[in-house]
Write a structure and sequence with these properties.
There is one protein chain. The chain contains 12 helices and 9 strands. By secondary structure, the protein is an alpha/beta fold. It folds into 2 domains: 68 residues, no CATH class; 240 residues, Aldolase class I (TIM Barrel). Strands 1-2-3-4-5-6-7-8-9 form a 9-stranded mixed beta sheet. The longest helix has 14 residues. The chain is globular, with a radius of gyration of 20 Å. The N terminus is likely disordered. It binds pyridoxal-5'-phosphate (PLP) and iron/sulfur cluster.
Length: 337
């Protein structure tokens, strides 16, 4: 039950850390705020006990009040379909655990590595392939970070580091600034990429301390956001993206093709156009990773191809994301078309 007085101003936190500690963590609280009833939505605490519900307030503000089919709500609400066990869906669908050479590093592709910067996210997306990832084993002490850096130093073929997670921007800027400085001192590393959803769900994350370390590195940073639906883009996010761009940073987007959320050409065309208006270029449209508990989001490949052909005929080439799938054992993502 909400204890906040109705007269409270909507945007009380300009500080992202306060916003992060103020996330919604119960189904009832979320539904209350949206004027919805649990019985209309097949929610279940059992799914939430396997993978907690977590939604920042700014993201809730983007949902439509009273709409049980809201495409943002569907991304975060624990429902009974998650409990279906499907033998084609696994707990480690892209077999990351076998490419985890030292804690904190996932090295699958020859010249780029993921660094698992932060074990947590600002939002728990129900379709996430990391919902079963052993984050506790990847929680790092400074000593372990030094070992991860030694791994990078010892592999001259690595030319790009990707901050990943969880969400890397859930880490604080002092740490990120320190780590980036260390990586910068490794000569064969040319590029830095940050895969994050945090500025989408808490736009105040793009603040001066972040812009400061991000714009003072030789590593040519690219920020890859994760936005699935046009409704996730508002003026606060556009403002943040604008600041990143003014700092000379390339801003891209990846989406996941999700049944009931963005599985039609109209939505995806709207998304690409709105991304462009906000200064963000579409990069990847991912097929869902077959993770246990997410089979109800799956879009069959034939349908994905059909949708993709439609968006391709309606958009300029530079606004068409690449339709890809992560396949275990491949040396890069696989293009579906
Ligand atoms: C997606 C991914 C990358 C980055 O791939 P790009 O095609 O360069 O964006 C790197 N490592 C892993 C394990 C990945 O899943
Ligand atoms: S890793 Fe990305 S998709 Fe997964 S829960 Fe975090 S923000 Fe959502």
């Amino acid at each position: 039950m909400s204890t906040e007085p109705a007269s409270q101003p909507i945007n009380i936190y300009s500080d992202w850390k306060a916003e992060l500690s103020n996330c919604i963590s119960s189904i009832d609280e979320l539904l209350n705020q949206l004027g919805l009833k649990a019985e209309d939505l097949n929610t279940t605490e059992q799914a939430a006990s396997q993978f907690p519900i977590k939604v920042p307030q700014p993201f809730v503000k983007l949902m439509q009040y009273g709409n049980p089919k809201d495409p943002l709500l569907k991304q975060v609400l624990p429902i009974t379909s998650e409990l279906q066990v499907d033998s084609n869906f696994s707990t480690d669908p892209v077999s990351e655990s076998s490419f985890n050479p030292v804690p904190g590093i996932v090295h699958k592709y020859r010249n780029r590595v993921l660094m698992i910067i932060s074990p947590s996210c600002a939002i728990n997306c129900r379709y996430c392939f990391r919902r079963h990832f052993p984050y506790e084993d990847n929680r790092q002490s400074k000593q372990q970070w030094l070992k991860a850096l030694d791994y990078l130093k010892a592999k001259p073929e690595i030319n790009e580091v990707i901050y990943s997670g969880g969400d890397p921007l859930a880490a604080n800027d002092n740490f990120l600034s320190w780590l980036t400085g260390e990586i910068e001192s490794i000569k064969h590393i040319k590029r830095l990429r940050i895969h994050t959803r945090l500025p989408v769900v808490i736009p105040s994350r793009i603040d001066d301390p972040l812009l400061n370390w991000l714009s003072n590195t030789r590593l040519k940073p690219t920020v890859v956001l994760h936005i699935n639906h046009a409704n996730e883009i508002d003026t606060a996010l556009s403002h943040g993206v604008n600041q990143l761009k003014q700092a000379g940073i390339l801003v891209l987007n990846q989406s996941v093709l999700l049944k009931g959320i963005n599985d039609n050409s109209h939505q995806l065309i709207c998304l690409s156009e709105k991304l462009f208006d906000a200064g963000i270029m579409p990069y990847y449209l991912h097929m869902l990773d077959p993770v246990q508990g997410a089979s109800h989001f799956d879009v069959p490949e034939a349908q994905a191809v059909e949708i993709f052909n439609q968006i391709q005929s309606e958009l300029p080439g530079f606004l068409v994301p690449k339709l890809v799938q992560e396949r275990a054992g491949e040396t890069s993502k696989s293009l579906i078309l």
